[in-house]
Design brief:
The complex is a heterodimer. By secondary structure, chain A is an alpha+beta fold. Chain A is built from 18 helices and 14 strands. Classes of the chains: A alpha+beta, B mainly alpha. Chains A and B meet through strand 7, helix 8 and helix 10 of A and helix 5 and helix 10 of B.
């Protein structure tokens, strides 16, 4: 199913007014991509993609800036969701948002050196110059303290630096500095063959390989205007749900680890391991890598494996139900989870948060429903939502989604069994020639929410620009709002309830 | 005698920790580390170099030794295998014992603040806040059992129960035992108060205070913490279930006392491991509720002395 994208090119001074008009019309910012097109058209270009979930359409605003004056009016003031995108584009491409309320460096830390690694004339193998990381003198009221945490933590977890402003144990504000794991994936993708780049795209994130691969494949397939074989379509849908399943089950365990509830941690860990062993049997990889390729899937799933999936999933679901009932009936657990880290619905709307976090705050937002891809258009399913927006709601959201996923897998397997008996299986549609300079976005719903990949094609089927917007990138800016007013010992729990990746945010 | 006893405690304390960890792992369906793991950890720490923050002062280098010395002294006071008080330091005075441990805690707090890191300050502010609530309960619970007979030493309390195990075990003892058990759970830093296994530095209570230490220093602090754990177990046993303890100094009595004491400590450790396996950590500000509950039980224990039952 191809996205309907209506495109509009505007002058840069019209940008804030146009954004405001779209936001008021019920649109939200999907992604914003800056490109360096000085070689081709002599301009830098910004593309703002907006989505209207209810109407299932996407609108694109394009703004061009001359090479000698790469500035534009910031829209962060009218649309806070644009904050990170504008800062990132300034850091990496040197396109400056004028009158941005908080233009601190985002991706590159320390002082600005006017070195822009994502510009086309910056060699890919050149390392960045050393910077001095200055710490600002905090402006503290009486009784307030700053608690700096990370980027190296006491456990083996991803790096992030958090600065809490606290009064006693109460958190007054939180500033998070991420992008310690920025690997320059987008830069290194430039010039790669579109099919080869799949291996790179999959490694954006450890635990969302399938959904990143799907979003990328959708973008390429839309550009080539091709349809994939029906068997591949269902196989992809199955892989996507398997990924959601093992992630959600693991997250239930992680939440219990946040409060030291070892029963939940160990049991969910055991179930997740069973699912990952299943993944290994099905695709040869515990994180399901290498299964999705441009134009289809790399391998068919045999009848025996389908049966194995059905059995394993139903037994895991049953056990998870028992574990969940123990977790949800434990007095201390409920006391810790309920009303901790409340995420207001208004914040979700304002910042365009996605995934289970948005749905647990009562916002029905799911790519599978709003912009159905692969097999989802032909499936009957519901996406649960919760209203409370606290840690408890996000836990229940995941448990409810796991049950829904169980039903989906059941149906998908039924649809797939028709194909496995056929001898002549086509799994991949060959890639058609891509038009140089064409671009589009591809979307998918990961366990953390919506992924959006922007792909622009260059000469000879290579990538000219790739922009990966993971679900974590969309959701990190809302975490500080959810922790406000909570006590410091609850932060790890609240953070875990969002379960955001650092690597796929930082890229 | 008391020195031998304290040395015994030093060597035995890591094993108790190992047994608790092993039991916990077993209850969670894991294989778990060997019961000798704490000894290996100590050996590793002692071999490693010590990293000192450039902000830290003499305090960080001295306190770990001092802290262990205080705990060692406390260990010399407590009746472990025999209730014969003349073998023990200061006739096992209750007040001295508790304030020795209190002093050790204070020193730990000073170490936590010494390097000026945010975690140390955060950890000790929580630790001291909790100990503030623990102390009155400890006194009330222990004194309640001895106040009628004017007994202010652990050995006296043990002797009292040893000589009349049935007549002397009254409602007072029962209430005091409940209160003391809750205090022991708090003092040894176990769930639901503190999570000893957490890697989440923001949630730590006791661990946060020693987060900056390394090498020899962390070895001494860990050993001190494990000894304190064993001492609190023994306090509970002395006051509430001294059965099996020798009352004199006969060889057979002492040997029996050692065996029975080891058995009782393991039973207590297993109970705590079981409690830890089924519990989650409570909200930090729910801890006072837990401790006030313990305090009110201790008050009732005291009151039962003055009410004809």
């Amino acid at each position: 199913m191809t996205l309907m994208i209506s495109e509009m090119e505007i002058e840069r001074n019209q940008l804030p007014a146009e954004c405001l008009r779209l936001v008021e019309a019920g649109y939200r910012l999907l992604t914003m991509v800056g490109t360096d097109e000085r070689e081709e058209i002599g301009h830098y270009v910004l593309r703002y993609y907006f989505a209207n979930d209810r109407a299932s359409n996407v609108t694109l605003l394009t703004v061009k800036m001359p090479a000698n004056d790469p500035t534009y009016p910031s829209v962060t003031a009218v649309m806070p969701a644009a904050d990170w995108y504008e800062r990132e584009v300034y850091d990496l491409l040197g396109i400056e948002p004028l009158s941005h309320p908080n233009l601190h460096p985002l991706v590159l830390h320390g002082q600005r050196l006017a070195v822009y690694p994502l510009r086309r004339d910056y060699p890919v193998d050149q390392s960045l110059p050393e910077v001095v990381r200055e710490v600002e003198e905090p402006n503290l009221a009486d009784g307030q303290f700053i608690v700096p945490v990370g980027p190296i933590h006491a456990g083996i977890i991803e790096p992030g630096h958090f600065r809490f402003l606290v009064e006693g144990e109460r958190i007054e504000s939180l500033t998070a500095q991420l992008f310690y794991t920025h690997r320059g994936i987008e830069k290194s993708a430039e010039g790669m063959q579109v099919e080869e780049a799949m291996a790179l795209v999959e490694q954006t994130c450890g635990v969302c390989s399938v959904s990143h691969a799907l979003a990328y494949a959708h973008a390429i397939e839309a550009l080539a205007n091709m349809t994939i074989p029906v068997q591949a379509k269902w196989t992809r849908t199955l892989l996507g749900e398997l990924e959601r399943l093992y992630n959600h089950v693991g997250d239930v365990g992680n939440l219990c680890a946040g409060i030291g509830f070892s029963f939940g941690t160990m049991q969910a860990g055991r179930l997740k391991e069973q699912l990952q062993q299943l993944n290994d049997d099905v695709t040869g990889h515990r994180y399901l890598r290498g299964a999705v390729v441009v134009g289809g899937v790399s391998k068919a799933i045999s009848m025996a494996l389908l049966e194995r999936i059905r059995m394993a999933v139903s037994s895991v679901l049953q056990e998870l139900g028992e574990v969940a009932s123990v977790i949800l009936s434990h007095e201390i657990v409920c006391d810790r989870f309920a009303s901790a880290g409340i995420l207001e619905r208004a914040v979700v709307e304002r910042f365009g948060a996605v995934g289970p976090a948005a749905r647990a705050s009562g916002v029905e937002r799911d790519v599978r429903v709003n912009f159905p891809y692969d097999g989802y258009g032909d499936l009957e399913f519901s996406v649960p939502t919760f209203q409370a927006g606290d840690v408890m709601a996000r836990l229940q959201q995941r448990i409810a989604e796991v049950n829904e996923t169980g039903k989906l897998i059941e149906t998908i397997i039924k649809n797939l069994t028709v194909f496995v008996t056929k001898t002549n299986q086509t799994l991949v549609t060959p890639l058609r020639p891509l038009l140089e300079g064409s671009y589009t976005i591809g979307m998918s719903e990961s366990a953390r929410g919506e992924n959006v990949h922007f792909v622009m094609v260059g000469k000879h089927q290579t990538i000219r620009r790739l922009r990966i917007r993971s679900a974590s990138y969309a959701n990190w800016p809302i975490v500080p709002f959810a922790v406000l007013g909570n006590v410091i010992p609850d932060f790890p729990l609240i953070n875990k309830s969002f379960e955001l990746c650092y690597a796929c945010c930082d890229r | 005698m008391s020195v031998i006893q304290a040395c015994l405690l030093v060597f035995f304390a890591p094993l108790v920790q190992g047994v608790i960890k092993h039991t916990k792992a077993w209850m969670q369906g894991r294989k778990g580390p060997s019961v000798w793991q704490p000894y290996r950890e100590l050996r590793k720490y002692f071999r490693k170099g010590t990293v000192l923050s450039d902000q830290s002062s003499l305090v960080t280098t001295v306190v770990p030794y001092l802290q262990l010395a205080l705990v060692f002294m406390a260990a010399m006071m407590l009746p472990v295998v025999t209730a014969a008080s003349h073998t023990l330091l200061a006739s096992s005075d209750i007040f001295l014992f508790i304030y020795l441990l209190g002093f050790a805690r204070l020193l730990t707090a000073v170490v936590g603040m010494d390097s000026g890191s945010a975690f140390g300050g955060m950890g000790i502010s929580r630790d001291l806040f909790i100990s503030l609530l623990v102390e009155p309960t400890v006194f009330l619970a222990i004194l309640a059992t001895g106040i009628a007979a004017n007994i202010y030493s652990f050995s006296g309390l043990s002797t009292q129960l040893l000589s009349h195990p049935v007549e002397e075990f009254t409602l007072t003892h029962l209430l005091a035992a409940v209160a003391l058990f809750m205090i022991v759970m708090t003092e040894v830093g176990r769930l639901p108060i503190d999570n000893p296994d957490t890697h989440l530095e923001l949630t730590m209570i006791h661990e946060a205070a020693v987060l900056d230490l390394s090498g020899r220093h962390i070895a001494l602090m860990s050993l001190g913490a494990w000894m304190r754990q064993l001492l609190w177990f023994t306090v509970f046993l002395d006051v509430c279930v001294p059965a099996g303890m020798a009352s004199g100094l006969t060889v057979s009595g002492i040997l029996l006392g050692v065996v029975v004491w080891i058995g009782k400590v393991f039973v207590l450790g297993t109970m705590l491991a079981a409690l830890e396996s089924v519990n989650a950590k409570m909200r930090l500000f729910a801890v006072p509720r837990f401790l006030t509950f313990a305090l009110s039980i201790a008050v009732f224990a005291l009151l039962t002395n003055f009410v004809a039952v």
